[in-house]
């Protein structure tokens, strides 16, 4: 049994292959945190780790238990108001205004496996991977409120899933003001807080800050997980890097307002809280009702951040992502957006698709502009019927022509949005989110539909289903191009308005769930003006996401590198686009653009019909190369080698290695060339030290330990460009490493 329970001492030891998570029931009936870290032996008690001493100037639980002082205790799910003055995991308000609760241990339940949550994206164990689920029941007798703390271990990925459920079994209405998915109290604060922050077109840049007294946090109040912050964070020892050291990872299976917070108290202990942002949140619990938090993902390793990313990524692929596509190689594609924007007709698109087929691509994706009377950003969102003047022969006929070419067919949708200039708005102006008597703030000339309304979800499901059926659709790019303002739902009462942000995202999940179940063969890719909703909640339904609207190769190095800490490369949509780049105006070689985009779900987003014959041949060769190594690029074990967020940021390198260590591909990227530099070496990782390898088909053979420890010589970049009109800046090289047969 991976979860060991000492009934006499009420101690719970959750063991994965390499970690231990231990908590117990304290004298006051609440749960106390004992240990989380590298695996330790199971035993009946850990008196050394649960020792308590009396501290002056601190409230105590009872006069005869002076050493039980809430502000000193490491707890599992803490409240505020009875002597612990740190931020709490939850807060409940009674009808009389009191916010004091006392949850006491009542029972536990241990079962094999892991079931999905109702109405929320969640982890699962469909393939009997030795998962176990422990539920602890606690009760506040005064309120009749029951709290279930859920723990699932996935032992072989060293992952623990946590969530909480509140059940009102009392007689009065209660209001839940905060409800974290997980709390972790650690005994010291010698950690770096590592976050992945940015903005539109520069998402998930790595920021590393040592913990200090007080609170460090990231959050979103945008109605989405956001471009600005990502729900994935790490706590790492100061000496931890990608290859070595101790690190905790935390992620949230949620797509709405969130908060990740770590607080260092006066004793230099740390409290981590992960969950729905308590700002702009409240949930009314009438008698008989319950509230379930999203799931939080916790993982630990003492083998560095590469190992953490790998074990969490394996967990996502096996136990979170839609299993229909989780391990299936994703198609290469061409998207027309940056080539045509909305200025296209049927003939132009068919020419585009025909050329794509000749170049070896596998799917044509038609982006914005195919519906309503949509020819610019001002109209038609919500009108999910064909723009007939652009498709005079019929949309089904056009889709058939794409399929007859031997290509898959994909479409762009933005289901959650509405334009004022639309048939939908004329029929249902009340479906637009806005506060009574207030001006609705436009963004990108569009507004947001009220996804808390069941009739909105029904309308979108029916409209999208008609198009899917008509075109025999293979793929949907689901976009969400703005944040929510004037947050208010006319169908909710005044007392329920703070439920609106969470109810909104539940409506989105409901629509996703219905479509995925009705059309299991359609591959969904999530998008939110690029990477504005790159989170596990979306990945549950859509196993890949558009990583960023910024397709510049240099910017994508940073974005994809930062994203790789929390998410595997199979989740990242990565395309080659035109130069000068639309977002930054930079000119990079076709080679470098592809060398960056290979490490994800590969595609193109430029006008291939206007390329020279030489460029088209280069694209054809790139597509063939990617398809030959696609499984390795999408599902190989990913290693970060040279970190562009450190040491001046001029060089970045990464690598993918096959499970059997017979094949690897490393990419090295240098932004600016330098004069008169010394010899360069690339130190790869993950190979078998005793196996011989060749590099790029060369004749010299290298043992794996030589490539990893002594390194691979990298030639002077200037040699490649001397005597040509090509720049030595923005240079990249791939190293294909194959075991000698």
UniProtKB/TrEMBL annotation:
Alphabetical list of SUPFAM superfamilies matching this protein: (Trans)glycosidases
Keyword Iron-sulfur attributed: no
EC nos: 3.2.1.22
Residues the entry annotates as binding substrate: 200, 367-368, 444, 477-481, 527, 549
UniProt cross-references to PROSITE patterns, sorted A to Z: ALPHA_GALACTOSIDASE
First-tier enzyme category under EC: hydrolase
Cited CDD domains: GH36
Spans through the membrane: none
Domain of life of the source: Bacteria
Residue stretches making up the Glycosyl hydrolase family 36 C-terminal domain: 652-736
Residues at the active site: 479 (nucleophile), 549 (proton donor)
Keywords (A to Z) from UniProt: Glycosidase, Hydrolase
Family: Belongs to the glycosyl hydrolase 36 family.
Protein name per UniProt: Alpha-galactosidase
Provenance organism: Lentilactobacillus sunkii DSM 19904
């Amino acid at each position: 049994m991976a979860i060991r329970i000492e009934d006499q001492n009420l101690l719970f030891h959750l063991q994965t292959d390499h970690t231990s998570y231990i908590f117990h029931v304290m004298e006051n009936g609440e749960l106390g945190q004992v240990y989380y870290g590298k695996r330790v032996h199971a035993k009946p008690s850990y008196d050394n780790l649960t020792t308590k001493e009396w501290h002056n100037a601190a409230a105590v639980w009872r006069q005869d238990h002076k050493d039980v002082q809430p502000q000193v205790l490491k707890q599992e799910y803490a409240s505020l108001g009875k002597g612990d003055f740190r931020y709490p995991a939850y807060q409940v308000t009674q009808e009389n205004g009191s916010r004091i609760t006392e949850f006491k241990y009542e029972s536990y339940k241990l079962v094999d496996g892991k079931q999905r949550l109702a109405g929320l994206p969640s982890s699962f164990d469909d393939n009997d991977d030795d998962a176990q689920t422990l539920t602890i029941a606690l009760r506040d007798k005064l309120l009749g409120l029951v709290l279930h703390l859920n723990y699932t271990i996935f032992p072989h990925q060293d992952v623990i899933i946590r969530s909480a459920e509140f059940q009102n079994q009392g007689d009065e209405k209660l209001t839940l003001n905060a409800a974290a998915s997980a709390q972790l109290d650690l005994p010291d604060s010698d950690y770096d807080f590592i976050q992945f922050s940015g903005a539109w077109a520069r998402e998930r840049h790595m920021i590393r800050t040592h913990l200090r007294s007080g609170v460090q946090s990231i959050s979103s109040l945008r109605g989405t997980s956001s471009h600005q912050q990502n729900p994935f964070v790490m706590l790492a020892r100061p000496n931890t890097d990608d290859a070595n050291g101790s690190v905790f990872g935390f992620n949230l299976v949620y797509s709405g307002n969130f908060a990740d917070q770590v607080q260092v108290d006066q004793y230099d202990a740390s409290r981590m809280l992960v969950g729905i942002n308590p700002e702009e949140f409240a949930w009314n619990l009438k008698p008989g009702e319950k509230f379930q938090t999203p799931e939080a993902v916790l993982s630990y390793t003492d083998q560095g951040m590469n190992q953490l990313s790998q074990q969490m990524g394996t967990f996502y692929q096996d136990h979170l992502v839609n299993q229909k596509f989780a391990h299936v190689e994703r198609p290469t594609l061409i998207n027309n957006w940056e080539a045509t924007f909305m200025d296209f007709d049927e003939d132009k698109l068919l020419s585009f698709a025909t050329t794509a087929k000749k170049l070896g691509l596998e799917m044509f994706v038609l982006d914005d502009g195919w519906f309503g009377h949509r020819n610019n950003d001002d109209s038609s969102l919500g009108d999910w019927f064909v723009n007939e003047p652009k498709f005079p022969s019929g949309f089904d006929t056009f889709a058939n022509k794409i399929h007859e070419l031997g290509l898959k067919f994909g479409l762009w949708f933005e289901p959650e949005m509405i334009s004022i200039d639309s048939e939908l708005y004329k029929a249902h102006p009340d479906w637009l989110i806005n506060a009574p008597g207030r001006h609705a703030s436009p963004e990108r000339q569009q507004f947001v539909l009220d996804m808390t309304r069941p009739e909105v979800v029904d309308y979108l499901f029916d409209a999208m289903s008609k198009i899917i059926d008509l075109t025999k659709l293979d793929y949907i790019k689901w976009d969400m191009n703005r944040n929510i303002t004037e947050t208010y739902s006319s169908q909710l009462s005044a007392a329920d308005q703070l439920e609106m942000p969470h109810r909104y995202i539940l409506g989105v999940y409901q629509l996703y769930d219905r479509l995925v179940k009705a059309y299991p063969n359609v591959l969904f890719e999530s998008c939110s003006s690029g990477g504005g909703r790159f989170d596990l909640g979306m990945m549950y339904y859509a196993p890949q996401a558009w990583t960023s609207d910024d397709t510049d190769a240099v910017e994508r190095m940073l974005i994809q590198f930062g994203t790789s800490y929390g998410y595997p490369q199979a989740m990242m949509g990565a395309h080659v686009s035109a130069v000068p780049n639309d977002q930054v105006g930079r000119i990079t070689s076709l080679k470098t653009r592809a060398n960056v985009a290979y490490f994800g779900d590969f595609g193109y987003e430029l006008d291939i019909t206007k390329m020279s014959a030489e460029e088209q041949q280069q694209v054809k060769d790139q597509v063939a190369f990617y398809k030959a190594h696609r499984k390795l690029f999408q599902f190989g074990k990913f290693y970060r080698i040279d970190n562009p967020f450190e040491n001046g940021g001029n060089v970045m390198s990464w690598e993918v290695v096959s499970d059997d260590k017979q094949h690897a591909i490393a990419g090295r990227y240098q932004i600016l060339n330098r004069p008169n530099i010394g010899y360069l070496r690339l130190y790869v990782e993950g190979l078998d030290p005793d196996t011989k390898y060749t590099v790029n088909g060369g004749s010299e053979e290298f043992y794996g330990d030589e490539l990893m420890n002594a390194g691979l010589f990298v030639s002077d970049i200037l040699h490649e460009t001397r005597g040509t009109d090509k720049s030595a800046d923005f240079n990249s090289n791939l190293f294909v490493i194959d075991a000698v047969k």
